[in-house]
Every structure is written in C-alpha cells, then in structure tokens.
Design brief:
Length: about 200
C-alpha cells in the first residue's frame, strides 16, 4: 500500500466533533491564504521535533498534495534531537520512500519522496526557527502540550494554533511500540486529510 491509498482509506467519520473544532482554526487559516492566492506555510512544532511534529509535517504535506493544494510544510522544536527511528519506520510502512540523505552524526537527514511530480521533503530534527524553515510568515501548529505551554512566543508566527497529540514515546521498547506508533500516525493522517478536504480552491 502506498501513501495515497493510506489517505484514501482514512475514515473521516472517526474524527470527533471536539477534534473538528480544534482543527477549525487551521482550516480557516489555510482557506484564507488560498482565497488570497497565497501559499500557506505551516510549521508543526513539538519540543524535540522527533515524532509528532515530524509525522504531522509529512502527513500535512501529503494530504495537501492528495487534494491538489500547494502548501509549505515545516517542522521544528525547541531542542534538537533526531527524527526518531521508530517514527521513520512508521513512515516507511505507510508507503513513503525514505532514504538517508546525510548521516549528520546522531541527527540523520532524511529525504522523503512522494513519487511522481511531487517535490520530496527533507526531514531532520531542528529548532522551529532553523534556517531551513526559511519561509515567513507561518502558522505555528503546536503538536505537543509541552511546547505549547512552554513556548509562549514564536517569532514570525502569524498565528499559533494548538493541535495536540499524545506522544507514542511512552510505548518505546514495549510490545505495543509498533502498534502505537501506527495508531498515532493514522490519527494524525486522518486529521490532516480532514483538514485539507475542507479547503475550497
């Protein structure tokens, strides 16, 4: 199964009304940019930029591409760690072509390809204002409670929108590890699909 089939098979009815309200502000931001013939820039922020923000960046980008909507999709954190190998494995399992572009010590730089004529994206752990996240202004999408609560100000962010997810890290090295990374990934994908399905071009 490739990533397009994963998105196509997502059941949007699984998204609760509470979560739809959470996503509403992001939908309004993206729609406003599209209406003004601007490309939305979304910067998904989580403390370590290792799991949730990386998955959100990929699924946000892929879901927008699925619906033919051009966006810029970034991610970052407040500390540099690495794109966690468990999350990388989940991305591969969802049908993306993932390759190490540069070893870069403990923080490898990956290239994630969506195939066809869709530009690939470069993934590695970085702070939210890293030079590679160069396009401004942007919407800061806060994907974890720690970053949301401890980063009261993010320079250059037009808006700051909390879309929090539970951290699959707590299942690391348990017999539920693979299952829970996949569960979190599919949850994020489904919500990103819903988000971009609401955008009128």
């Amino acid at each position: 199964m490739n990533w397009k089939e994963v998105i196509a098979n997502a059941d949007l009815s699984s998204i609760t009304e509470e979560r739809r309200q959470v996503l509403k502000s992001v939908i309004e931001y993206v729609q406003n940019k599209v209406n003004n013939h601007e490309i939305p820039v979304l910067n998904y922020v989580c403390t370590h930029n290792s799991r949730r923000s990386q998955l959100s960046q990929i699924w946000g980008y892929a879901s927008a591409a699925f619906y033919g909507i051009e966006i810029v999709s970034y991610s970052g954190g407040v500390e540099v760690t690495a794109f966690n190998e468990r999350a990388v494995k989940e991305v591969k399992n969802c049908g993306f072509d993932v390759a190490i572009k540069e070893q870069n010590g403990d923080n490898p730089i990956y290239e994630v390809s969506l195939g066809e004529d869709i530009p690939s994206i470069t993934m590695f752990s970085k702070v939210f204002d890293d030079v590679s996240n160069s396009q401004r202004p942007f919407a800061a999408i806060m994907t974890c409670d720690h970053a949301d609560e401890n980063c009261p100000f993010i320079p250059d962010a037009e808006v700051r929108l909390p879309v929090r997810y539970e951290d699959p890290k707590k299942f690391d090295d348990t017999d539920k590890e693979t299952e829970m990374y996949h569960t979190r990934s599919i949850e994020i994908m489904t919500e990103m699909k819903y988000l971009f399905s609401q955008i009128k071009r």
